[in-house]
Amino acid sequence: MNYKPEGCLFKTAENQKYISTPEGLAEAMEKGIILEARASVCTGEHDLIIDLPCAEGIIKREEGAVGIAEGKTRDIAIISRVNKIVCFKVMKLSSEKDGTLTAYLSRKSAQEECIKNYINGLSSGDVIDARVTHLEQFGAFVDIGCGMPSLIPIDAISVSRISHPSDRFSTCQFIRAVVLSNENSRICLTHKELLGNWEQNASLFHAGETVSGIVRSVEDYGIFVELAPNLAGLAELREGVHAGLGVSVYIKAIIPEKMKIKLIIVDTCPDSEPSREFEYYFTGGHMDRWVYTPENSDKFAETVF
Predict the structure, then answer these.
(1) Is the pLDDT of residue 272 over 80?
(2) 55 CB contacts (<8 Å, ≥6 apart)?
(3) Residue 291, CB half-sphere, CA atoms under 13 Å: how many?
(4) Is it true that 13-116 and 122-195 share their CATH fold?
(5) What are phi and psi of 68, to 5 degrees?
(6) What is the CATH number of domain 122-195?
(7) Mean pLDDT throughout 114-136?
(8) What is the pLDDT of residues 16-46, one digit of tens each?
(9) pLDDT tens-digit series, residues 179-201
(10) Strand ranges inside the chain, DSSP E
């Protein structure tokens, strides 16, 4: 079983086969197969009603997520699933007197399997798939498999500083991330290490070019302009410029030993939208160490996993 964020299985031919007929649901129950379908309603008792082509699907409150029954997980974890794809295992099939079929489902069981067979085995430096679920001032919450949540702190999203995770991510976006720690199945993630070091990013630009950027902060001594998620330069002060503003900048100089890029703002571009597509420089499944700074730099920054 390849444990993925919720929504990855729903449209697959195998998933559709199992959820479309009573025979398919019965086979999935017998084999313990994890399925997906859309939650349409959360009742007053916080049971989830699941849209199935051949049956009425019900996830009772205590089966809605790991930790609900014990009070370790808040009910918002269930309520927030309405109109979204959820994973589950089929626990029981019941034929009603009116001829309809009721399928009793458990999202909790799917999550417990994911924890046991996947999440418990993750170690620092593992590179995994994730899906952004919601954004807070302090970081981005992501689904790392079967709806199990993890956090990317805001300062771990990219080297270029942002004021809010929405400057970099959008909800439902699929991303890659690196496991920073795994303590009792509580996974903390980082993202910036996949976006390349200073030299890799700086090699995309050359002195004398005029390129686009995003203002990230305005200081007394200059304006920091992001050229890429892991690369920013310092521009001379200019009136009417604020954080989040799109700009075009002239590159005066690139100085690797000081990790500096000197810029001049040519024009402002208020209607420009930042790209949320990433170029991941590291595409392997595990990294042991990441060094951001060039060898000849008088600064040093690294992550050791």
Answers:
(1) no
(2) 22, 25, 93, 100, 101, 102, 103
(3) 8
(4) yes
(5) -65, -50
(6) 2.40.50.140
(7) 97
(8) 999 999 999 999 999 999 999 999 999 999 9
(9) 999 998 889 999 999 999 999 99
(10) 35-42, 48-51, 56-59, 85-95, 101-106, 127-136, 139-143, 149-153, 174-183, 186-190, 210-219, 222-228, 231-235, 246-255, 260-269, 289-291, 302-304
Residues 148, 111 contacting (CB under 8 angstroms): yes
Helices 22-31 and 13-20: angle between axes, nearest 10 degrees? 110
Q: Is 11 left (phi over 0), alpha (psi -120 to 50) or beta?
A: alpha
Provide the pairing of β-strand 174-183 with 222-228. Answer: unpaired
Q: What is d(CA 35, CA 215) in angstroms, rounded to the nearest whole number?
A: 44
pTM: 0.91
b/e per residue, 101-120, with b = 16+ CB within 10 A? Answer: bebbbbbbbbbebbbeebbe
Cα 143 to Cα 151: distance, rounded to the nearest angstrom? 9
Alpha carbon distance 28, 1 (integer Å): 13
As given in the structure block, the two tokens for residue 240 are 């009417």
- Per-residue pLDDT for 273 more than 80? no
**Would you tell me how many other CB atoms lie within 10 Å of the CB of residue 43?**
11
Residue 188, φ and ψ in degrees, nearest 5:
-110, 140
Q: Which residue type is seen at 211? A: V
CATH architecture of 198-269: Beta Barrel (2.40)
Taking the domains of the chain in order of start, what are their residue ranges?
Answer: 13-116, 122-195, 198-269
| Mean pLDDT rounded to a whole number for the chain | 95
What b/e readout covers 168-203, taking b as 16+ CB neighbours within 10 angstroms?
Answer: bbeeebebbbbbbebeeeebbbbbbbbbbbbbbbbe
Distances (CA, A) of 3 to 44, 114, 255: 31, 6, 44
CATH hierarchy code of domain 13-116:
2.40.50.140
Give how far Cα 138 sits from Cα of 225, 234, 300, Å.
22, 25, 25
